[in-house]
Write the structure tokens for this entry.
Amino acid sequence: MNGDLIATTSSEGLKPLGSQAQRSFELVQSEIAARLGDDHATLFAEPIGTDYGDQTDWYATRIGRVSRLGDLDDDIAATVLDRLAVLVGDIREVAGSLSASDESGDQRLGEALANAVEIPDETAIHAIEDGGIWHPILINWARASDVQRTVRGVLTGASRQGAGAVAGRVGSDASPRADGQTPSGAVPSKSADTATATGVLGAMSGWLMGLGWLTLAILCAWIVALMLEPCGLNLSFSPSACPEEVSQAEPDPAVAESAVLRNRIMQLERQIAIADRVCQPVFEDRTDLVPPAAPQPGPPVMPTTVPTVLPASPQTSPDVVSPCPPGQVARETGELVLLVDASGSMEIGADIPPDMARDYYQLMARLEEATQSGRRNLLNFEESAYLGRLEGELRDLPGPTRMDITRDVLGDTVDQAPPGIDISMVVFPNCNDVQDAGTFATAQRGDLKRAIGSLRPVGKTALADAVRLAMGKVRGGQSVDEPANILLVSDGIDSCDGDPCAAAQSVKLARPGIAINIVDLGQSTSLECIARATGGYYIQSGRGDRAELGRIMREAAGYEGRGLCRTGTN
């Protein structure tokens, strides 16, 4: 879930449109964002099913104050509706183009986008105020009203003209004049017998109409009597006698709650299945965790395979002995910028079962390939739908999420920071929404930890923009003698059409003393180029091992181990 809760709705009276795959929030949002942009994609609220599946929570996809359309002033409501008409028109145009394609996958996608802009009524329209601008947002999208409307029959008198009309016509007849002409406006009469017959028919029509209405009233009364309990009426001519009262046993509470229990059992079975996959052993090839070989007898030497934790305090000499590679020396950093990914994928569980991880990272690798090659998407309709379902399952995994782990470990990293180091933080929760969280002195680290604790996953990954803003937060770094570290914590590729590698190269040209160290919570190889361009280092930490991740964070922050190593000489 990305933003505030808008509303909770029931499925009663609603008819879903299309297949479940076509109504996938991830599919609809990603396709519309890729083809029309984020302003169109955030039109749709994110649906999250409740525990028992009978209701849906709808969450906003952008930050701001949410209001129902009916609660807005008329001028604002009109502006929201105008903007909604433009967005819906654009989406329908794309849907029509896809539906006209010869490819079956495009046709199904076109149907999905066309269904997405269908809502049951105007109560599904809400608005979000963001920066003084009101944006429309829809709940209950891809759903139509399924309420049966009462259609009233017309029991009117086609023959209501009946006796009066016939009588009028008869009364308008006149006897022929002496000259054999009929008076003006009169209907010629064939004979007196015809006039008499007409009067009789008119009278009979009136009696027949009255008899018909009386018969209908008696029939309706009889139907109502049959619908009621005969005992309630206590009529002697009732079609059935009153049965003897039979004492009824108290209802069994277990039976009364059977529907709730069945839903709960299904939920537990699903959680057990996921937990079973989580518990499968995983053997990772982590050469950086291989213990050092036992030292050979001889004079003591400094180990080179495992970084040594070095004290970092203002009194320590800027050049200290460390296990750095040849050509590098250990230098304590004077500044630190925390660059934190707060995109929606950080809501994924920290411990992904091996079979789910295999499928997920294969699909993400193809998307990464598409991004690097400048193409929009390499996934077909079925793969996009499967990826959407898979991401939903990953968000439902038991245990902490990637963001939970990040908040905890970054809080510990701040606690262990040497005194005298100013720490800044930049957060990137969505495209065009890179946030400067501020710079915190030693005495303000409590405020920094509270800011870290408030982080929530929201949208897409604006990595390139975040790297450029983080460089602006560093005061020094003008040369290698003024080391400054940027600790980047992320789990994915730039999904906002940015080029993070080029952004990192520009950082190195402008500030040679800045090193960007990467802690990758996913498996995105495109993050490596940022570390290479700035002389930092890159490490993957895809499992939820807090102790190991804490050590990695301290190194990346420049407190110990490889984080101290910089190009130069003693």
About this structure: Confidence is low (pLDDT under 50) at residues 150-192, 280-322. The chain has 17 helices and 17 strands. The first strand starts at residue 5 and ends at 10. The CA atoms of residues 22 and 112 lie 5 Å apart.
